[in-house]
Design a protein that fits this description.
Radius of gyration: 21 Å
CATH superfamily of the largest domain: Response regulator
Largest sheet: 6 strands, parallel
Shape: elongated
Strand order of the largest sheet: 2-1-3-4-5-14
Number of helices: 11
Mean pLDDT: 91
CATH class of the largest domain: Alpha Beta
Number of strands: 15
Helix content: 25-40%
CATH architecture of the largest domain: 3-Layer(aba) Sandwich
Distance between the termini: 37 Å
Length: about 375
């Protein structure tokens, strides 16, 4: 992009923010200028994970790259090994400066990226999210793995099944448990924890949360092991640890293994890729855990970002046909956040069709 044009776009973005006007996908004119023919071919989508080096996000990138090659556009995977707002803001700014057509990001903070993404949108870059959302006014579409109530219940149910298999009676026993995940500001994980707690109160009122403030390891692999060890040291009689984070779960399993504990001694469950937990399952540390096809999720997020960047317009209730994957439906934002509003066009949520539970019997059927 010409330096003078970039300068004037940046000034325009600043004026938009100063006047308090929110944009999720650029103006209608700027969207049209990016490809009014509606084709995703030739577009460039900067695909941003919460953190690089994590099996979940690397697998999502692998899926996005494979599908994008078939679709004819470029997925540029950019991120940081440090899960921090400042690092993601820098990646966003680099994407804008590099002339990207769109950004598809998994946010480390529910609102900390809003300003940077509004600036990107005002500069004509389409913004979509996947895995972990920002404020709905700061993006177009969000590709979610499921609603908070679906995922919160799934986390608890996996724990219940594993507790039952080791001789506990979750309906009657005073199960001692806690949550270990990244941080309270991560929108998706926090919403799952909130809904999981609600499900426990309604169905297992005898359970005891030994750490109501939760444990957080900030998506740091080494810290996840350290925090995991501290939980085991503080509560030697704990029954269940729920790790709704793909860094916390392997870290907690490693801490249990280091302490000589197996699935007969303690129940650990949560969300992580099958291959990142396979060794702990083989070693008898964990019985079951879950996730979804993160490769498909990443691919859908990148496709929708490119689709809107190409000038296409969608609204709640519309069906979008994604080549090689299938149809998805645009839902209102309040399916994720109660009371949230949805703009008339190019704003909403798309859900993945299914979630998966992994055990020793099926974990080798998946290569991510």
């Amino acid at each position: 992009m010409n330096r003078n044009i970039r300068f004037f776009i940046t000034i325009a973005a600043a004026l938009v923010i100063m006047t308090g006007t929110a944009f999720a996908g650029g103006s209608k004119d700027s969207a049209g200028a990016k490809g009014a023919d509606g084709s995703v071919a030739g577009k460039t989508v900067v695909f941003i994970p919460k953190v690089t080096g994590n099996a979940f996000f690397e697998s999502a990138n692998n899926g996005a790259q494979a599908y994008a090659e078939k679709w004819g556009f470029t997925v540029d995977y950019q991120g940081s090994s440090n899960a921090a707002v400042a690092d993601q803001v820098q990646v966003i700014n680099n994407a804008v400066a590099g002339g990207a057509d769109a950004i598809c990001i998994s946010s480390v903070d529910a609102s900390g990226l809003d300003e940077a993404l509004k600036n990107a949108s005002a500069a004509g870059v389409t913004v979509a999210t996947w895995d972990s959302d920002v404020s709905s006014f700061a993006r177009t579409l969000m590709v979610s793995q499921g609603t908070p109530d679906i995922l919160g219940e799934m986390l608890v149910t996996m724990g219940v099944e594993a507790l039952t298999n080791r001789g506990k009676d979750p309906a009657k026993d005073p199960i001692k448990y806690c949550w270990h995940y990244s941080q309270a500001t991560v929108a998706d994980q926090n919403s799952w924890q909130v809904e999981g707690e609600k499900y426990i109160r309604e169905n297992y009122p005898n359970w005891i949360n030994v750490a109501p403030d939760n444990y957080y390891s900030e998506q740091d692999a080494e810290k996840a092991v350290t925090i995991g060890a501290s939980i085991l040291e503080a509560y030697s009689d704990i029954d269940l640890i729920i790790c709704n984070d793909s860094t916390a779960l392997p870290g907690q399993c490693k801490a249990a293994q280091n302490a000589g504990l197996t699935q007969k001694d303690i129940t650990i469950t949560g969300f992580a890729s099958p291959m990142s937990i396979k060794a702990y399952c083989d070693a008898g540390v964990i019985e079951r855990w879950g996730l979804w096809d993160c490769g498909v999720q990443g691919a859908i997020g990148c496709y929708l970002a490119a689709y809107l960047a190409a000038g296409n317009t969608v609204k709640v209730g519309d069906t979008i046909s994604i080549p090689e994957i299938g149809d998805v439906t645009v839902m209102a934002n309040d399916c994720l956040v109660a009371g949230d509003t949805t703009a008339a066009t190019n704003n909403g949520v798309v859900l993945l069709p299914e979630r998966l539970v992994f055990t020793k019997e099926n974990m080798n059927n998946y290569n991510y």
